[in-house]
């Protein structure tokens, strides 16, 4: 009876998980299906590993990296470039976005130049940044900041413009100052937009750091990617790409956790809207 109870317990947990979070179960099943099909196709058609490696070869290369202490120093370099560039780009983006959202004249005079600068491919100016700031971490941080700041600017401006005109007019009728209107209405309306921009920026920061390391670096995951490519180590390349994807996903999840903590009223409004529909 005890054995039967113990064997039925995992099945009950699986059913409970399937009922509560079906998207997790189906996502895991889809991943297993993709990996299994990939491995089968490689074995069936005898595809050379230099073209497309098997998932098992990628897993071995990934494990070899994770068990090498030197690998984590490269991860640390890239992670520092990501976080520093994201922080600088976000602060600059918030400052510019708030200024443009507060003064409409800036939206007509300054914002077009920001958009024009954003259309310039950062890969094209990355060599210049490396020349100006050197092959060290600073040039990678600058490139990352340039790539990350634009979505913060755009979303901050959109959030400031999304403030309720009725609330703004009411506060102004009570002779509220520009700072009071900003603090009581505009910044609260902009917070969900700002965090949406920060979420995009933190993911783009990963790309920015790798772009900078591709141009010229002495350490980092982008540096390792170039080494793997030059040595025709396709499985090693895929393994590093998996690590980069994991870093991006973790940063995305952390940003969502922070957003739920700070912009809690937006989560509450979404729940109420779903309940009333």
TrEMBL record:
Q: Which InterPro entries does this UniProt record tie to the protein?
A: MetI-like, MetI-like_sf
* Ranges of residues in domain ABC transmembrane type-1: 75-259
Per UniProt, which keywords does this protein have? Answer: Cell membrane, Membrane, Transmembrane, Transmembrane helix, Transport
- Which GO terms of the cellular component aspect does the record hold? plasma membrane
Chief subcellular site?
Answer: membrane
* Record's subcellular location: Cell membrane
The membrane topology of this protein is:
Multi-pass membrane protein
Its GO biological process annotations read:
transmembrane transport
List all membrane-crossing ranges: 24-51, 71-98, 110-135, 141-163, 193-215, 235-255
Per the record, the similarity remark reads: Belongs to the binding-protein-dependent transport system permease family.
Known PANTHER family for this protein?
Answer: ABC TRANSPORTER PERMEASE PROTEIN HI_0355-RELATED, ALKANE SULFONATE ABC TRANSPORTER-RELATED, MEMBRANE SUBUNIT
Question: What is the protein name given in its UniProt record?
Answer: NitT/TauT family transport system permease protein
Source organism lineage?
Bacteria, Pseudomonadati, Pseudomonadota, Alphaproteobacteria, Hyphomicrobiales
